[in-house]
Amino acid sequence: MKAASLYSSFPYAALGILIVGLLVRYFMALRKPETISAKAREALELLAGGRLWQGSLALLFAFHLFGLLFPRFILNWNAGRAGLYSASLGLNLGSDDIDSLFHVAAGGKA
């Protein structure tokens, strides 16, 4: 399998699975609207969050959309040193965040 197929077919398969899953959940929710509406209201309050949360979700969506629309750019970026360094930086920052999260969850201070 070529690396280009990861960007050419898998995102569309994932999008199709998402749409099917959402439709199944929607039709199942029609059977119990009173319990679903309370849970949906609570989930919406949690998802609304602050400006930083909303901005980060918007950036996440925008970059994923960019990856879907311009897969060759992403493949070329990953082939060079800049892609390697940015991926390494992102993994290091992410692992530090996860480590801090587990430390706080264990009762320590951030």
Describe the model.
- The chain is mainly alpha-helical and 110 residues long.
- It has 2 domains: 67 residues, no CATH class; 31 residues.
- Helix content is 85%, strand content 0%.
- The chain is built from 6 helices and no strands.
- The longest helix has 25 residues.
- The chain is flat, with a radius of gyration of 19 Å.
- The N and C termini lie far apart (43 Å).
Number of structural units classed as domains: 2
Reading the helices and strands in chain order gives HHHHHH
> What distance separates the N and C termini?
43 Å
Catalogue the unreliable spans. Answer: none
Shape: flat
List the defining traits of the structure above.
single chain; 110 residues; mainly alpha; 6 helices; 85% helix
Structure summarized in a few sentences:
The chain is mostly helical and 110 residues long. Helices cover 85% and strands 0% of the residues.
SSE inventory with pairings:
Blueprint: H1 4-8, H2 10-29, H3 33-48, H4 51-69, H5 71-79, H6 81-105
